[in-house]
Design a protein that fits this description.
By secondary structure, this protein is of the alpha/beta class. Helices cover 21% and strands 32% of the residues. The strands form two sheets. Strands 4-3-6-1-2-5 form a six-stranded antiparallel beta sheet. The protein has a five-stranded parallel beta sheet with strand order 9-8-7-10-11. The protein is globular, with a radius of gyration of 17 Å. The chain binds flavin-adenine dinucleotide.
């Protein structure tokens, strides 16, 4: 492990998702969209590291994460939810393939797969580069939509929310019907089955593989 960080604040965003703020060690460099691995300093858990994405900006004085817990399953995310300010976790050096290439883009996210796009979309807003940007965000229920109000308030961002319990899963026909432009970069993040299905659908819609950006291993 590379760094020890301390929780300073925690806030609930959806029924099973929390926003965490941690202290920032001096020597941590990352780009928006990158991730790290966190390990609990609890007996029996110190060999269990799990990947999570920074949602803060590289220049921020703190580190932030948005993490979905799986409370029915005694894993790391269920225990993260029980942390209190002052508790410490171990953090590895940053890694990750998702970064903003700039220009027209469609971000396709499912559930906690929104996390790399949180700092990327905020940065596009800050830099005045949100033109030609679309967010397609799929969740099981309406209550699960992370930061919906923030996405809807981003002037210039086209938002398409999909509630899979009501509308079913996103497929090729949905993308063809709802997206006007396929000549752009597509960023995919979410559970492996979602990413695989979106990649296949985009390829069938003639999007070349080098314009599909994703992170393996979710
Ligand atoms: C690069 C990267 C970045 C990521 N960034 C984020 C992020 O910023 N925020 C975020 O929320 N997630 C993120 N993830 C996903 C996150 O890493 C996983 O949700 C986390 O590792 C799950 O850890 P766990 O110990 O709770 O579950 P694990 O024990 O690792 O289980 C993994 C999955 O299996 C399922 N599962 C396994 N056993 C059971 C069981 N008995 N009952 C029910 N379900 C079960 C759970 O649904 C869980 O999703 C990221 C993943 C990657 C690869």
């Amino acid at each position: 492990m590379d760094h020890e960080i301390t929780l300073t604040a925690k806030e609930r965003l959806t029924p099973d998702t929390w926003h965490y703020v941690f202290t920032r060690p001096e020597k941590v460099e990352f780009t928006p969209g990158q991730a790290t691995a966190l390990t609990l300093e609890r007996e029996g858990w110190t060999d269990e590291d799990r990947p999570f994405t920074f949602t803060s900006q590289p220049e921020d004085p703190v580190l932030e994460f948005v993490i979905k817990s799986y409370p029915d399953h005694d894993g790391v995310t269920a225990r993260l939810r029980d942390l209190d300010p002052g508790d410490k976790v171990q953090m590895e050096d940053p890694f990750g393939a998702i970064h903003d290439r700039g220009g027209p883009a469609t971000f396709l996210a499912a559930g906690a797969g929104i996390t790399p796009f949180i700092p990327i979309l905020r940065r596009r807003v800050r830099d005045g580069k949100l033109a030609d940007t679309t967010l397609v965000f799929s969740n099981k229920t309406r209550a699960d939509i992370i930061l919906r109000e923030e996405w809807e308030a981003m002037a210039g961002l086209e938002t398409i929310f999909v509630v899979s319990d009501e509308q079913g899963m996103i497929d090729k026909a949905f993308l063809k019907r709802r997206l006007a432009d396929f000549d752009r970069t597509f960023y995919l993040c979410g559970p492996g089955e979602f990413v695989d299905a979106m990649r296949d659908a985009l390829k069938a819609l003639d999007v070349p593989g080098d314009r599909i950006v994703t992170e393996e291993g979710w």
